[in-house]
Amino acid sequence: NEEDGVKTREIDGGSPSEIDRLSSISQTGSDSGQQSFRESEAEGEVSDVFMDFPLDKKHESVTRRTLKWNKPEGLLMAVGFLGAAVSGAIEPSFALLFAETFVTFQQVMLGNEITDKARLITGLMSAVGFVKLLAQILQYWLLAITGERLTRRVRRALFEAMLRQEPGWFDRPENQCGILTARLANEAPQLHKISGQRGGVIVESLAITIITIVLAFYYSWQLALVNMAFLPALVFVGALQVRDVESHVGEKAVCGSEIVQESLSAQRTVASLCLEGHFYQAFTECVKEDKGTKTRQRISYSIVNALAQGIQYFQNAAIYYLGAVLIDGGTLNLTSMFRSISVANFGAQGLGRAASFLPDLNSAITSGKNIFRTLDRVTKLDVTRGDIPSNPIEGNIEFRNVKFAYPTRKTVQVLKVCRREKPTA
């Protein structure tokens, strides 16, 4: 019979149960080859992964499944998220202390004694910095530990899933030995960007945003509304900056790469045929064709960057003008104005720094899909089927009319009506 282009063996006089017994015999040899791997699982690192987190739920998102795989480190992740929340609350807290310095300068102008107050403010600033240090250590250290444990767990499970596959799976170009080892080395570490690292950045950003908005509205809701009015423009321009930078880097990396790779991979052939000039000319033409695109990119990036820098000055001008109007009208005092402005500025800076640590989720999601696709795949040649004989089998084994071909090379038969006899050892 034939299934998926693979012609299976036909055993004369053999029933399905006998075929299962033959496959179970091959299992005994494979079990000894994986004994060391199983022993490492018995130490409590991977043995319960497949039991606790089923791999057949394809409807689940990559993020949800990754969090399930990171469930054993739930306590460490919770403490790391707590450190991220405290780290996010530090930014607006420091802004309030910074605003108090304006009151101190005002008292200096009035000739008041401010030494004790200055010492108090500087001491509180130092304490806030120390708390920030501890919070950052908890956040990145504990979340890094959870990420490394997740990487080890996923890498072991992915390696076991690869070992379960049938020989035809390894014959595919995307499943060659070098590619599979590269997947074990590169794809597994990508998942920690989805769970702990991403969650820490989100928690820190939420803490900064919520506390900043509350304090800004508390001290002056008018100034807070003006700040929020400029927020969509800042976000839009920031997104354009990121897109232009990524597009610029991507085009630069891709242009002519195929020509370079082709010429260097066959450098001896190129030298023997004297084709160095041909490839150099082709690469030069590729660069010339891309010159216009690069020029337009530089112009657009300059305009977007100028807008990003200019909007910040327009925002400050509007805020200080409105603050002067409110102070002149008696509805706002100088201390409250500086507190509201400082909280908004420090909150925006802290949010930008937190967002800069946000990992590249596109590559992480792609790696996660590839990993879970391999883990969910059911092998077409399950060596665990059949009964394991309690006593050694004695008898002659004969194979008749064995036909075999790999699924990726259906027209090339490896075995053509092969016949083999194996006498009793």
Provide an overview of this structure:
The chain has 425 residues and is mostly helical. The chain has 2 domains: 62-220 and 346-380 and 400-418, ABC transporter transmembrane region fold, CATH 1.20.1560; 221-331. Helix content is 72%, strand content 5%. It has helices at residues 16-33, 35-42, 49-52, 62-69, 74-110, 115-164, 167-170, 177-186, 196-219, 221-254, 257-265, 267-272, 276-289, 291-329, 334-356, 361-376; strands spanning 2-3, 6-7, 397-404, 415-422. The strands form 2 sheets. It has a two-stranded antiparallel ribbon with strand order 1-2. Strands 3-4 form a two-stranded antiparallel sheet. A hairpin with a 2-residue loop joins strand 1 (2-3) and strand 2 (6-7). It is elongated and about 105 Å long. The protein starts with a strand and ends with a strand. Mean pLDDT is 75; it is low at 1-59 and 248-253. It is a multi-pass membrane protein. This is ABC transmembrane type-1 domain-containing protein. Keywords: Membrane, Transmembrane, Transmembrane helix. Residues 1-45 are annotated as: Disordered. Pfam families: ABC_membrane.
Architecture blueprint of SSEs:
Blueprint (H helix, E strand, L loop, with lengths): L1 E2 L2 E2 L8 H18 L1 H8 L6 H4 L9 H8 L4 H37 L4 H50 L2 H4 L6 H10 L9 H24 L1 H34 L2 H9 L1 H6 L3 H14 L1 H39 L4 H23 L4 H16 L20 E8 L10 E8 L3
Antiparallel strand pairs: 1-2, 3-4
Helix pairs in contact: 5-6, 5-9, 5-15, 9-10, 9-15, 10-14
